[in-house]
């Protein structure tokens, strides 16, 4: 890790900037192969859902004293993954394998014997094997589909990468590579071994994950907020909805699913590059969906390039059950939009800053529009840590018995219990293991304020 990148990493951690990212901060390098898999220059999205990419940092590396990078390696790690040739990928993999061997020789025991390193890895792999029963209608993953690779260690998410399966390509990471050809033909949810022998879960992304990982133009409406907006707007199948701006197309996708094949969405965007990005993301989801399900995703979003404020001719003769606005100065668009909103319908507004909400409220106060403000909310999720409490050697702690419980147990039973300290989870009876349970130290920060406005008849 370069000193400059180390500083950025340390600053991010100390300021708790976009805390979800820190859980991915140990990603050293990831790529999906020698070329961009989908041809739209994005490589199927960044490895990190939002915010800056955090430089390499690996606890295992520091723990086992991984050697510092050479200047050439540092520069190579900063290059876009798509620009690397097949040879560079081979060399990288070779080097990672060597590094991995080095760490093995530097530890007193092999990594395999270190429960801290591998117990969970193995259990993940075994879980994958147990779920071998597939239903007849389940389709295997195929080339062209967008999939998600996940590597967890000690229940901690170390790598999450979305990419498109391409013949001959390879998913590369600091934890080894997996050939796309090996993924093709497997059922989603299969655990495969990387070239370094580590278990990598390969599955299909949910729509939420797709929107978080897809290539972005502007910031997206975060799924938690988009979900709340759908509730505010009471979007139903068959509805006709107006949205602006299209941005990166995340809200468009959620609306598309909510209104279904009998509904429609008109998505208006003023910037051409954002308009193109939204269309690309929408089309990529649709094509991946038809490959994974064998069914067509409804083609129910019409993306229009133009300014919503001057869109009266576009909206002429049309009416909408609800409206979603995620754009700058939404109050300036209300006079164009409100005449086309059903009476009793909701216009939901997404704004990042409370000062923008004040502008909106002030705009409403100064207008004669038949809109009433109902509520302003901020949607906050709180992540929790919940896991059995482990000792340093990876075995379970045992719940301390009360004197009464101890008195009722025979001496023999007690002796047996002592011997169980190093056994695996299945040998501990239900309720015998204490848990840690507390709010996760890494929480997501603020995303947006949501305003619910309703059209009334005066
Ligand atoms: C934050 S982004 C929207 C993100 C989108 N909701 C998503 O989930 O991906 C805001 C977008 O509004 C667009 N915009 C701003 N003013 C506009 C206007 N007057 N008419 C249409 N689009 C506008 C911007 O160009 C930008 O792409």
TrEMBL record:
Q: Which GO terms describe its molecular function?
A: tRNA (adenine(58)-N1)-methyltransferase activity
GO BP field: tRNA methylation
Family annotation (SUPFAM superfamilies): S-adenosyl-L-methionine-dependent methyltransferases
Q: Which UniProt keywords apply?
A: Methyltransferase, S-adenosyl-L-methionine, Transferase, tRNA processing
Q: Where is the composition biased (Basic and acidic residues)?
A: 94-115, 394-404
- Reactions catalysed according to its record: an adenosine in mRNA + S-adenosyl-L-methionine = an N(1)-methyladenosine in mRNA + S-adenosyl-L-homocysteine + H(+)
Q: Where is the TR61B FKBP-like domain?
A: 143-197
Q: Which CDD domains match?
A: AdoMet_MTases
UniProt cross-references to Gene3D superfamilies, sorted A to Z: 3.10.330.20, Vaccinia Virus protein VP39
Where is region (Disordered) located?
32-78, 94-122, 394-425
Entries under InterPro entries matching the protein: SAM-dependent_MTases_sf (IPR029063), TR61B_FKBP-like (IPR054151), TRM61_C (IPR049470), tRNA_MeTrfase_Gcd14 (IPR014816)
Q: Which PROSITE patterns match?
A: SAM_TRM61
Enzyme Commission code? 2.1.1.220
**Annotated Acidic residues bias:** 405-416
Name a GO CC annotation attached to this entry. Answer: tRNA (m1A) methyltransferase complex
Per the UniProt record, one Pfam family is GCD14
- Cite the tRNA (adenine(58)-N(1))-methyltransferase catalytic subunit TRM61 C-terminal domain residue spans from the record: 206-451
Note the superkingdom of the native organism. Answer: Eukaryota
Q: What is this protein called?
A: tRNA (adenine(58)-N(1))-methyltransferase
According to its UniProt entry, this protein's organism is Hemibagrus wyckioides
